[in-house]
């Protein structure tokens, strides 16, 4: 029965991806398949160990798995904290640059709670039991967020690889803008433009009359529209200006896509196929927005500096949660029920 469920989930993922791979539910299906399969395999191994001649073998295996899981959490937390300080040092003290630092502190705090349960269990069993209940109650919504995060990041990596591997010719390549340094593009934006140029050359080499759309408006702190700076950079790099179209009014990713589609339509490309180029951490969300705006095609990701990636992917994850806020609020509220009940019980015991 369990393996039939896994097969059904895998089939659902395959059918959905075949119809349109720009759906986050595919990542949810695949994560469920891998997670449930891992639990099933672990259960089979536990049965084999329990049937062995050494009665302590299963206990030692379980203890080892728990210790490895805690050590992995500690490493994740410490690495995130160090990355947070690196972001503050290199990118400035903006709230968005605090994400990996805050994430690391939360992970380490949860690890500290696990250690507290173990320590109190040696000396104060009643206190340890209460802390254990709190550990489970807090861990339930965190487990939900962790599951969605793994599904998002995991499928983002799969989608990025597949889109690059099987990229088809397109009518236009849309490169999404980012911040500028004066009238020059930043290294991050330059990496997008390089990736866009590769997509342009590849599509034209396969016989399509492909053009590249530089998409980006002018921010309050920018001296020129991003689209203008992007076009200048590409021309300096050797791209024929006649192959470039400019969209210089957008202020968000969704507007990038909508306004670029209008620019393409003005040049005779209406209802065509597009390749949207951004950075790797943003590619899946850009693809999801393409589907929402009825834009046919796929998204490609340019390589991002390693130190920048953790905070950027956390920011994208927060955006995904917000874009599906009704569903996430409902599920998080359900996951928080044990915590609310425990809080009510604790308050009642003090009365």
Please outline what is shown here:
With 351 residues, the protein is an alpha/beta fold. It has helices spanning 2-19, 25-50, 57-91, 99-123, 125-165, 187-205, 226-236, 253-266, 283-292, 309-323, 325-335, 337-350, and strands at residues 172-176, 180-181, 184-185, 211-215, 244-247, 273-279, 296-302. Among the domains are: 1-51; 168-304, Rossmann fold.
What features would you describe in this structure?
This protein is of the alpha/beta class. Among the domains are: 1-51; 168-304, Rossmann fold. It is 68% helix and 9% strand. The strands form two sheets. The protein has a five-stranded parallel beta sheet with strand order 5-4-1-6-7. The radius of gyration is 25 Å and the shape is elongated. The mean pLDDT is 88.
